Amino acid sequence: MSASAPRVDLALARRLEERSLNASGAFQSLLYDGWLLGFRSGPTKRLRCVNSFYASTLPLAQKVEHCVRFYQRAGLPPIFRLLPFSQPSELDAWLDHAGWERFERTHVLHASLAAEAVSATDEVEIVSVPDWQEPAAPLLGVTAEAVARHVERARTYPLPQAGALLRRDGEVVACGLVKIEDEHAGLFAVHTAEAWRGQGLGRAIVSALLAQARHLGARDAYLQVDADNTAALATYRRFGFVSAYDYWYRARPGEQH
Q1: What is the pLDDT of residue 2?
Q2: The pLDDT of residue 227
Q3: Residue 151 has pLDDT above 60, yes or no
Q4: What is the structure's pLDDT at 4?
């Protein structure tokens, strides 16, 4: 983080990260000297990278080399996710010096639901997450083979959750998920088909998800958004979301995928 960056509430950041990983369901990982080595294959990098959450004791070069070998054996590119509380604190600078390139800066946003007037709309369907997976799959680029796995994970997920769908002429053109832990709602997979963007459909999905979150007892919400996604950021600001902290990835040249 630069010296001019806003002050980050590290306790809040850590808990938001833990809730976000919990919401992912069946997070496949190994714990290595305070680092979580996620290895669930798929497009979501958060679930297949090094999350350096907790106190570190081993020499840094030794740990990084261990992670490189681990991901090579798993058939995945070695990727680190850097957070305001990453341990050890010099990890980001060490990786930078070693030639690991920084990419995909992401904002984590946070909002109080008590202060916002959010409401559902009749055109948005709120459905169970197992029933959400198949109709949302084409919009999200999820293969038929992967849908079956996602449905099974959704059926065994132990915390409250719901999906949102918005259709035009029978086709799903916008979607999203909300998952609740205690009184905290996480929004995920909020997406609008490219041909339908700029028409307020994403705003309708977010409003419906936040209304459902309040119905399920949530008092605040969080989400993650690409730092370059100005349209999504503008939508979320309308609902009172503000920046909590940023994270980014580092990988070796040619392995940022």
Answers
A1: 42
A2: 96
A3: yes
A4: 43
Count of domains observed in the chain:
2
85 and 142 housed in the same domain: no
Residue 165, domain extent: 115-218
Residue 257 placed within a domain? no
- Judge whether 5 lies within some domain: no
* 71 pLDDT higher than 80: yes
- Using DSSP bridges, classify how beta strands 184-192 and 220-226 pair: parallel, antiparallel or unpaired: parallel
Residues 6+ apart with CB under 8 A from 136: 142, 163, 165, 172, 175, 189
Residue 230 pLDDT grade (very low, low, confident, very high; cuts 50, 70, 90): very high
Judge whether 232 lies within some domain. no
How many Cβ atoms sit within 10 Å of the Cβ of residue 144? 9
Q: For residues 138 and 209, state if they share a domain.
A: yes
Residues 51 and 135 both lie in one domain = no
Please tell me the distance from the alpha carbon of residue 206 to that of residue 176, in angstroms, as a whole number. 7
CA distance 2 to 215: 39
Higher pLDDT pick, 3 / 174: 174
pTM of the model: 0.90
Clarify whether residues 53 and 120 are in a common domain. no
pLDDT at 1: 42
Q: Is residue 45 part of a domain?
A: yes
